[in-house]
Amino acid sequence: MKTNETETVQSVERAIELLYCFTTRTPELSLNDIVKRTGLNRTTVFRLLSSLMKKELINKNAAMNTYRLGLPFIHFAQIVTENLDLRKMALPIMNELNEITKETISLNIIQGASRICIEKLEGKEDIRQFINLGIPYPLYKGASGKLLLAFSKDELIEEVIEGSGLTKNETAELKKDLLLFQEQGFAFSMDERIIGAFAISTPILNSQQQLIGGLSISGLSARLDNNKQLFIKAAIQSAEKLSAMMGYQKLGG
After folding, report:
1. Which domain holds residue 34?
2. Which residues on adjacent β-strands are paired with residue 230?
3. Residue 127: which pLDDT band, with cuts at 50, 70 and 90?
4. What pLDDT score does 168 carry?
5. Is the domain of 100 the same as that of 190?
6. What's the pLDDT tens digit per position in 206-253?
7. Nearest partner of 163 among 113, 117, 115, 116, judged by Cα
C-alpha cells in the first residue's frame, strides 16, 4: 500500500514538474523539449502527457507535433486572480464594517462543494467568534455557507444537497431558506452552526452578475439584541460597495 502511495505521489510531482516546463516564452514544447527540461525518460513523459491530455490540462498540436497548456488553466488563473483582487479590495471595507459592528468580519468563497474563509478580521470584544482561514465548511449550514449556496447555480445546489445527508424535511427547510435569502439579499442564522453565535452574510457579485464571494458578520448571539437591523444594513451596504468595485451593476441601473 505504501509503495502504491509513493508511486502516486511521485507521478503527481512529475506531472507538476512537466507543467512547469511551459512559460510565456515557450508556450509550446515538443516531446524532446520536455524530456530535456525534466530529465525524465521519453516513456514516462509520454505517459504523463497522455494522462494530462485526458483531463484537457494539456493539448496537442498535431500539425506541429507539439504540446501546450489546456484551456482549464484559464479558469484556474481567473479563480486565483479574482480571489487575490477580492481580498485586496475587500480589506478596507471589512475594516469599516469591523469598526461599526465590533464583531468578527469574514470573507468567504466557494471551493468545490464547500465554503472557505480567505480573509478575516477578529471582533474587538473580549469574547468573540473565532474563524479558521482555509478550512472547508459545509455550504448547507450557517448563514455564510447558505448565502453562497443560495446565489449559486442549480447544479451546485443539487450536488450539495445530495451529499449533505439531510433528511427530506431538512432538505425542504434548506430550500426554503435559500429562496428567502435570494429574495431578501442576505442570510441570517443564530445558534445553527455554533450554539450561542449568530451570523449575517451578504453576496459579492462581479460585472457578469455572478457570485464571487460572501461578506459575513459573526459574533455572540447575546450581543445582537439591539443591533440586528443595524448589522444587516451595514453588511448589505458593505457588500454592495464591494460588488460595485468588482464591476457589478444592478440590472436596469
Report:
1. 2-70
2. none
3. low
4. 94
5. yes
6. 888 889 999 999 998 888 888 999 999 999 999 999 999 988 887 654
7. 113
Which residues touch 17 (CB under 8 Å, ≥6 apart)?
A: 38, 40
pTM of the predicted model over 0.90: no
114 and 31 both lie in a single domain = no
Query: Same domain, yes or no, for 131 and 235?
Result: yes
- Confidence check: pLDDT of 2 > 60: no
Tell me phi and psi for residue 109, to 5 degrees: -135, 165
In this structure, are strands 211-220 and 114-121 parallel, antiparallel, or unpaired? unpaired
251 in any annotated domain: no
13 by Cβ neighbours in 10 Å (0-12 / 13-18 / 19+) ranks as: exposed
Task: Looking at the chain, list the stretches that DSSP marks H as alpha helix, in order from N- to C-terminal side.
Answer: 2-19, 31-38, 42-54, 72-101, 142-150, 154-164, 168-184, 228-245
Which residue reads 459573526 in cell numbers? 218
Residue 115: phi, psi to the nearest 5?
-100, 135
